[in-house]
Amino acid sequence: MASSNADLSGLVAHNEAPTQVSDDAHGYYTHGEKLVDAKAPTGPIKDRWTTRKMDNRLVNPANRRKLDVIIVGTGLAGGAAAATLGEAGYNVKSFCYQDSPRRARSIAAQGGINAAKNYKEDGDSTYRLFYDTVKGGDYRSRESNVYRLAEVSASIIDQCVAQGVPFAREYGGLLDNRSFGGVQVSRTFYARGQTGQQLLIGAYQAMERQVAAGTVTQYTRHEMLEVIVADGKARGIIARDLVTGEIETHLADVVVLASGGYGNVFFLSTNAMGSNVTAAWRAHRKGAYMANPCYTQIHPTCIPVSGEHQSKLTLMSESLRNDGRIWVPKNREDCDKDPRDIAEEDRDYYLERIYPSFGNLVPRDIASRQAKNMCDEGRGVGPMVGDFRRGVYLDFADAISRLGEDAVREKYGNLFDMYARITGENPYETPMRIYPAVHYVMGGLWVDYNLQSSIEGLFVAGEANFSDHGANRLGASALMQGLADGYFVLPNTIREYLADGPFEKIDESHPAVAEAKASVEDRVSKFLSIGGDRSADSFHRELGHIMWEYCGMERTEDGLRKAIDQIRELKAEFWRNLKVLGTADSLNQSLEKAGRVADFIELGELMCIDALNRRESCGGHFRAESQTEDGEALRHDEEFAYVAAWEWGGEDGQPVLHKEDLIYTAIEMKQRSYK
Amino acid sequence: MNLTLKIWRQAGPQAPGEMKTYQVDDVSEDMSFLEMLDVLNEQLNAGGEEPVAFDSDCREGICGNCSLMINGEAHGPEVTTTCQLHMRSFADGDTITIEPWRADAFPVIRDLVTDRSAFDRIIQSGGYISANTGSAPEANSVPVPRDDATKAFNFATCIGCGACVAACPNGSASLFMGAKITQLGLLPQGQPERWSRVVDMVGQHDAEGFGGCTNIGECATACPKEIPLDVISQLNKDLRTAIKHGH
Amino acid sequence: MAVTRPTLVKGSQGTRSTIALKITMAASGTIFIGFVLLHMYGNLKAFGGQDSFNEYAEHLRELGEPMLPHAGALWVIRLVLIVSLVVHVWAAATLWKRAKSARSTQYVGRKRHTALSSNTMRWGGITILVFLVWHLLNFTIGKINPSTGDTGDAAGDPYSLMVDTFDLWWMTLIYLVAMVALGLHLHHGTWSALQTLGFTGTAKSRTRAKAAGWVVAIVVAGGFSLVPLATLVGIIE
Ligand SMILES: Cc1cc2nc3c(=O)[nH]c(=O)nc-3n(C[C@H](O)[C@H](O)[C@H](O)COP(=O)(O)OP(=O)(O)OC[C@H]3O[C@@H](n4cnc5c(N)ncnc54)[C@H](O)[C@@H]3O)c2cc1C
Ligand code: HEM
Ligand code: HEM
Ligand code: SF4
Ligand code: F3S
Ligand code: FES
C-alpha cells in the first residue's frame, strides 16, 4: 500500500499539473480560465477536515431561526441534511417531486454502505478507505474530499444505528460486515438486500420528526424548475406544485440541491422513472458549473431489455458473479437455441478466457464492456432488440451441482425470485440472462471543498455533485457519500456561509425573482402550445438510444461527433413537434416529463462534448482511441488529471471549459491492471 | 394479447369520476403492468385524449409509489407491487378493472393517483427514534440480539404503499402502523419513546379518518412485503400497555 | 383546488383511540363467550330430563345465597351482561360508522380473500341481537308458550316451555338460524378478541387463536343446537 512511502504533510505534490495536447472537441467549446478551489484546505491531509470545522464560523442559535434554508431533494443527502439542519434550528423547506420524502431514489440501493470501522480487525483504516476510493475512482477525484469522506464514514454508522436502522448483525448482537466490490477488507454494512431503503427511512424519520417540531416544512409533489440568483447569490427557487400546477416562489438565505443523479439521460437505467437533471441543469444555466458530465457507471449485472416497450432496467446484486459463470455461444447460429442444448465445447466463457486471473470477478466497467463486445459480435442471447440480441448468460449450473440447489437458494434466493418474476424464466433450470445498464453518474455540479457550487449560496450534496468518486465509483460508496454530505459535511460548511446572514430580504418584486418566475411560466405554456405529434416519452427514448449507442460503454471520436449532431437535430424537433395534452393547472404527468426531457437533451449534448474532449480512458469513461494493446483502459495523467468543469455558454453559445488540476500529496497515481 | 381495460378517470380532486373502457392490443407478456399502461398512454396521447395518470417511480418494487387496484385486488393478483406485476399473469381477451386506492384518508388527486400524505403525518406523530445528529454513541456499544434485529428488519421492509389500507374493508392503516411500532419496539433504541409513540401514532391515524381494525386480515394478504398480522397484535398490545402507563 | 388535509394532532390519549374501543369490544365479547359456554352447558341438562333441568334453573337463582338475596347472583350476572351488551353494541356501532366514512366509495370490482365470518360480524351481530330480544321474550321476560298461547308462569316451568317451543319446527328453525349466526360471530370473534388483546404476536399463536375460533364456534353453536334438534326429533320430550 502506498501509505508507507506517502508523505502526509500535504506539502509534497506527487504529480505535476497536466497539460492537454489533444483537442478532439475543438470547435465544440471555448476555453475558460483555470479553476482553483478557493476553499481547498491545506496542511496534513489528516487534519484538514478537523481544522476546517474549527475555522468555519458558527451561527448563534437565536439567529438560526431567522435563516431560511431550501433543500431540494429528500434522498440520503437531502433527507439527512434537512433533519440535521432542522435539529440545529434553521428554518428548513424541503422539496421532492414524489408524494413522500421516503420515496426518493436512494430507497432502491441494495448492496451496502462502506465505513472504516475496522470491526473485523482486518487492517482497515480511514487511510485505507481513502486510498481504495481514490484508486477505484481511477485518480480523478480530489484527495481532500475523499479523505474527509473516509473520516466521517464511521460516524454515519453510529448515527444510523441510533435511529433504529436494522443493520445485519452477528449472533453476538454486534454489527456484521461483508466485503464488496473487490476490496480486500470487510467494511460494508448492510441490511439484507435493502440497505438503501433502511438508511433512507432512517433519514426520513429523522426529518419527519423535525417536521413535527416545526423546523422543517415539507413540500411533496413539488418540482423545482428554476433557481433564483439575485445580486450574485442563490436566494430561492421557483417550484411547480404538481397537483395544482401553481408556479410558486420560495425565497431563502441559502439553497441546497440534493436532487440525485442524471443517469436517466439514457432513458433506460436502473434509476427511478422520475429521476432527472432538471434541478441541476437549471442551476447550470444560471451559472453553476457542471463537472465531468461524461463519467457514467454502467453496472454489469442487470436484467436485459426484453423489448421496445421497456421502461426501466432492474439491477441484480453484483454478488451473483461470485458463483455464476458468464458465457455466450461460440457460434452465432446457436444464439437462439435453448442454452441447455448448447454443448460445453460450444460455449465461450469469455471473461475466464480473457482475464484468467480475475475471471468473472473483473471490475464493473470491464465486465460491462466485454458483454457489449460479445453482443456486438452477434453472439448475444435473448430476444432481438433492434438488430442485436442484448444479453449474455450467467450460469449457475456448476454452482448448483457443486453446492446443491438449496445452498444456492439460501444465498441468492431472493434475487432468483426477482429474476423469475420479471422474466418468467426459472433460473434454477436455465441460465439467467444479464446485460449491463446505466446505474450511477460520477459527474455532477462542481462544488468546492465546502460543497458550494460556483454560484454563491448554492450548495450541492449527494449524487448531484461531482463529488468524491472521480471517474468510477466503488460499490457501497454512494450511500456513504450521500449521508456524509447530509449529516456531517454540509451542516458544518454551510454555517460558514450563513454566518453572514440573514441576507437582505428580497421579495417577489425583485427583478431576479420576476425573471425566474416568468421564464418558468413561459416554458410551461410553450410545452403546451407546440401542438406537434410526438410524446415527450418518445423523444426521451430516442435520446436514450443515441446516448447508449455513442456515449455508453465505449466512446469514439466519430461516434461522439455523430451523437452531437443527432442530439442537436432531436432538440430542434423536440421544440417543433412535441405534443403535450391537458392543462398547466392540474396534475399533468406529460407536462412534467416534457420539462425533464428538454433538460436531458441539453445535458446529453454536453456529456458528448465532455467525452469527446477527454481523449483518455479512465474509470467509467472508455475512449476506444485510448487503450492498451490488449484492449484495456489507458489513462493519460499528463494531459487529463483535471476536473472538467463546464460553464453554460448561453442558448446559442458554446460551453466554456474550466479545468481544475488534480494534485495528489497523499497518494501516488498508478495504472490499474486486472490481467 | 389483446385486452379490455376499465379504468377510473377523474379530472381532479373535486371532479366527478367514471369508469371508462379502453382497448389495448399486441400486449406482450414480458411487459410489466405499468409498461402496458405506458403503451395505452402513448395511444391515448396520439389520439388526442389525455393519458391516464398513475403513480410510479422506482418500478422495482421498493419505493412504494405504484398503487393500483387491479380487478379488485390491491397491486393485482400476485404478492408483489403493481410495478413488478407482469402481463403473463393475465390472458388474451381479459377485461381488467383498474381503480385507485379507495380510502377517504387517501383522496383521489386525479385518475389513479391518490394523496397518501396521511402516512407521513402518522410517522411525524411519533414513528421515529429521537437521535440528533452527532449525539450517537459508538454503534457497537448497544448489542441487539440477532433474532430481534432480523425481525425488526422484516417489519421495516414496509414500503408505505398503502395497499393495506386499500384492501381493508374498514380503510384501516393498522398494518402500516403496526409494522413501524413493532420494528421500533424490538430495538433497545426504541424503548424510551415506546408508549408515547404508540398513543400519538394511533391518535393521528384516527384523526386522519382511517377506520378501526376489526381483524379481517385482507391487509396482510394484499401487502407486497408480506408484513404479517402479528404487527397488529403487537400494536394493540403496546397501546394497551401504554394506557396502563397512563398515556 | 388543493385538498386540505388534517394537521398533526397534539395530546392524543390512548383511551380515546379506536384501539381502546376495540379492547372494550374484546372484553365484553370475552364475557359473552364465557356466558354462552355456561348457558350452553346448562341447556344440556335438558338431556337429564325435566327435573334435572328445572333444578339447574332454580339452582342458578339460589347461587350465592344466603350472602345474596334470592336470584341475587343472577342479577349480578344479568347486570354484567347488560352493561357488556350496551358497551359491545355501542362500540360496534361507533366503529361501523367510522369504517363507513373511511371507505365512502366502494370498488367496482372487489375480490375478497377472507372468511365469511370476518365479513359478516356486523350483520351477524344484529341478527344475534334480534334473536336475543325474541329469546328473552320467549323464555324469560314474557315466557310465551307458543303451543298453548299461555304467558308468564302459566306457560309452565322452564323445561316445559322449552320442549313446547322446540316441538314447533319453525321455532327450531329460528333458533338454528340464530346458532349459525352465533357460530360465525364467534368463529371470527374469538380469534379477533385474542388479536385485539395482543396475544397473537407470532405466526404460531395466530394459528392457535384461529383454531380456538373454530373450537368455540363449533362447541357453542353445536352444543346449543343439540337441545332444539333433540326436541324436534323427540329424543327430549
Ligand atoms: C438500483 C440502485 C442500486 C444502488 N445500490 C447502491 C449500493 O448498494 N451502495 C451504494 O453506495 N450506492 C448504491 N446506489 C447509488 C445510490 O443509491 C445513489 O447514488 C444515492 O442514493 C443518491 O442519493 P441522493 O440523496 O444524492 O439522491 P436521490 O436519492 O436520487 O434523491 C433525489 C431527490 O431529489 C428530488 N428531486 C430531484 N429532482 C427534483 C426537482 N427537480 N425538484 C424537486 N425535487 C427533485 C427527488 O424527489 C429525490 O427526493 C444504487 C443506485 C441504484 C439506482
Ligand atoms: C338453543 C339455544 C338456547 C336455548 C334452548 C336457551 C334456553 C334458555 C332458557 C330455557 C332460558 C331461561 C332460563 C331461566 O329462566 O332460568 C334462557 C335464558 C337466557 N338465554 Fe337462552 N337459550 C338458548 C340460546 C341462547 C343464546 C345463544 C343466548 C345469547 C346469545 C341466550 C341468552 C340467554 C339469556 C341472556 C337468558 C336470560 C338469563 C336470565 O337473565 O335469566 N340464550 N335461555
Ligand atoms: C348484540 C349484538 C351484537 C353486535 C351488533 C355485535 C357486533 C360485533 C362486532 C361488529 C364485532 C367486531 C368485529 C371484530 O372485531 O372483528 C364484534 C366482536 C365480537 N363479538 Fe359481537 N356483536 C353482538 C353480540 C355479540 C354476542 C351476543 C356475543 C357473544 C355471544 C358476541 C361476541 C363477540 C366477540 C367475542 C367479539 C370479538 C371482540 C373483538 O373483536 O375483539 N357479540 N361483535
Ligand atoms: S404494510 Fe404492506 S401494504 Fe401496508 S403500506 Fe406497508 S408495504 Fe404497503
Ligand atoms: S384488513 Fe383491516 S380490519 Fe384489520 S386486519 Fe387488516 S386492517
Ligand atoms: S414503482 Fe416503486 S414500488 Fe412500484
How far apart the termini of chain C lie comes to 73 Å
Question: How many distinct helices of chain B?
Answer: 8
CATH superfamily of chain C: Fumarate reductase/succinate dehydrogenase, transmembrane subunit
Q: Would you tell me which CATH topology of chain C applies?
A: 3 helical TM bundles of succinate and fumarate reductases
Overall number of structural domains of chain C:
1
- Count of the domains of chain B: 2
Shape of chain B: elongated
The count of helical stretches of chain C stands at 8
In quaternary terms, these chains amount to heterotrimer
Task: Let me know the largest β-sheet of chain C.
Answer: none
CATH class of chain C reads: Mainly Alpha
How much β-strand is present in the residues of chain C? under 5%
Task: Give a verbal description of the structure.
The complex is a heterotrimer of chains A (675), B (247) and C (237). Chain A contains 17 helices and 22 strands. Among the domains of chain A are: 299-438, Flavocytochrome C3, Chain A, domain 1 (Alpha-Beta Complex), CATH 3.90.700; 511-634, Up-down Bundle (Methane Monooxygenase Hydroxylase, Chain G, domain 1), CATH 1.20.58.100. Chain A has a five-stranded mixed sheet with strand order 1-22-21-11-19. In chain A, strands 6-3-2-10-20 form a five-stranded parallel sheet. Chain A is 35% helix and 15% strand. Chain A is α+β, with helices and mostly antiparallel strands and 675 residues long. Chain B is an alpha+beta fold. Chain B folds into two domains: 3-110, Ubiquitin-like (UB roll); 116-244, Alpha-helical ferredoxin (Fumarate Reductase Iron-sulfur Protein, Chain B, domain 2, Orthogonal Bundle), CATH 1.10.1060.10. Helices cover 34% and strands 12% of the residues of chain B. Chain B is built from eight helices and seven strands. In chain B, the strands form two sheets. In chain B, strands 2-1-5-3-4 form a five-stranded mixed sheet. A two-stranded antiparallel sheet of chain B has the order 6-7. In chain B, strand 1 and strand 2 form a beta hairpin. In chain B, helix 5 (174-186) packs across helix 8 (230-244). Chain B starts with a strand and ends with a helix. The model of chain B has no long low-confidence stretch (mean pLDDT 96). Chain C has one domain (21-100, 111-232): 3 helical TM bundles of succinate and fumarate reductases (Up-down Bundle), CATH 1.20.1300.10. Chain C contains eight helices and no strands. Chain C has helices spanning 18-44, 50-62, 72-102, 116-119, 121-139, 158-166, 169-196, 203-233. The longest helix of chain C is centred in the middle third of the chain and has 31 residues, at 72-102. The radius of gyration of chain C is 21 Å and the shape is globular. The model of chain C has no long low-confidence stretch (mean pLDDT 90). Classes of the chains: A alpha+beta (675), B alpha+beta (247), C mainly alpha (237). Chains in contact: A-B, A-C, B-C. Chains A and C meet through loops of A and loops of C. The structure holds flavin-adenine dinucleotide, protoporphyrin IX containing FE (2 copies), iron/sulfur cluster, FE3-S4 cluster and FE2/S2 (inorganic) cluster. Residues 72-78, 95-98, 104-106, 108-113, 195-196, 223-224, 258-261, 270-271, 275-276, 278-279, 315, 439-440, 462-464, 475-479, 482 of chain A line the site of flavin-adenine dinucleotide.
